[in-house]
Amino acid sequence: MVSNREPYIHVQQRGKIAVNRGSGGVITALDPILQSCNGLWVAWGNGDGDKRASGPSGKVAVPPDNPSYTLKRVWLTKQEEIGYYYGFSNEAIWPLCHTAFTRPVFRKEDWESYLKVNEKFADAIAEELQGRKAFVWIQDYHLCMLPKFLKEKLPNQTITAHFWHIPWPSYETFRICPQKREILEGLLANDLLGFHIRYHCNNFLDTVDRELESKIDRERQSIIRGGHETLIRPFPISVDYTDIRQMVQKPVVEDMARQLTEEFGLSGKKVLLGLDRLDYTKGIPERLLAVDRLLELRPELAEKFVFLQMGEISRLHIPRYKQLNDEINMLVEQINWKHSTDTWKPIILIRRHLNYPEPLAFFKLGDVCIVSPLHDGMNLVAKEYVVSSEGGNGMLVLSQFAGASRELTEAVTINPYDREQFAEALYSALTMPEEERRKRMSRMSKTVEENNIYRWAGKMISELLKIEFAE
Known about the structure:
The protein is an alpha/beta fold. The chain has 3 domains: about 10-75, no CATH class; about 80-235 and about 455-465, 3-Layer(aba) Sandwich (Rossmann fold), CATH 3.40.50.2000; about 240-450, 3-Layer(aba) Sandwich (Rossmann fold). Helices cover about 45% and strands about 20% of the residues. The protein contains 17 helices and 17 strands. Strands 6-7-8-11-10-9 form a 6-stranded mixed β-sheet, with helices on both faces. Strands 14-13-12-15-16-17 form a 6-stranded parallel β-sheet, with helices on both faces. A 3-stranded mixed β-sheet has the order 3-5-4. β15, α14 and β16 form a beta-alpha-beta unit.
């Protein structure tokens, strides 16, 4: 397994080394798989305690409480971090692929850092293989050029699968990228390339068709370029249903939920919940404005609910993220001032990092979970919530622009840009009869149970096993 983000981060706290589980959908989905197969995970080591924990080899056994696989860290210089991660990955590719109307920034020096870091990852994998053959499973948009470097350095040793966790844009959007041909050629060095939904597969096929000389077989869903075939497939990612169901019923999660109820004064109130990394694609300002509009339309709801918005600060080195953080702070202050009473304010903004299973405790408390991205490949928060709330009295409000909306069809669906509809959807979710809520949540939970993370992984591995190593 290869990804930018590491599944476990070692941090220094009061002179000691503590371990946090990494955040984000990639970690949520893939950590259980690596634990079950005792594999090797290669990732960027960016925790301030990572080097002390892993030593000269850069390797450490994880998870700390039950070591099941090896994490190998790749070390980056500060300049590489700025250019590869903050620059090309998150100021160029991320806004390019999300229809959230943030302009991408393309810098030559960022691209050069991106290439250098992708080659570092290839060297780290080559060092581990030492002549052996292996399946290499690459994750996401940070490592577009890794497949090409692997094929050049290890031409007959690897079969590579690459899963693209974010949307793939239309050709008209993608064509503005100065490095568009290089990115496409890097991805076409894979043997298997997966997206969440068929729509993104079709966008990729259309992009290649209009940009590169190649043979495209739309019936087989494959692309042949330079004699090499790449299979293009939809694989809707999911979560570990069984682990979440077992964990959410444990006393530790129950205790966490009780502590949170006391900490934030939630007793006797309905709880609306948002749980996101602070990112302009997540629609956080839109949901704050929807809560504001809900109280304008339904003033009788004052003091009846609290909206908890969890949001770990992210990428503040990038100006757009700092602007977003300032905008959220301003909206929370304005809306609370407008609607608060002597004993109540409608919105509580929580910025701390959540270690698993703390998110599950929040899910247990949420009468309504709001997942309102402006554009998202899948969104696993929606799936985690419906599994955590199974048998309870929760309801999911879900953006039609999240890939998850194609599976979780019993959710209250919204267009996050439509403030009036969004506010009415919140009211509908809050006042929905209990029997209907239970039926809807049960159906959605069943969908996640049937299409769980192991089925997702099994489908990709089944496709990989059909591919033979080059001679």
